[in-house]
Amino acid sequence: MVYKLSMYFPEIEENVPLPANATEALPELSATEEIDMRARTIKFLSDLTGTPIIPDAADQRTAEIVAREMLSDPAARHDFSAYPNETMAFLAGMVAQSNVKIVDELSDLKMYVVNKLIYEVEHAPDSKTRITALAKLGEVDGVDAFKKRTEMTVQIKPLAEVEKELLETLNVIETRFIEVRQQEITQYDE
Question: CA-to-CA distance for 162 and 157, rounded, in angstroms?
Answer without folding.
Answer: 7
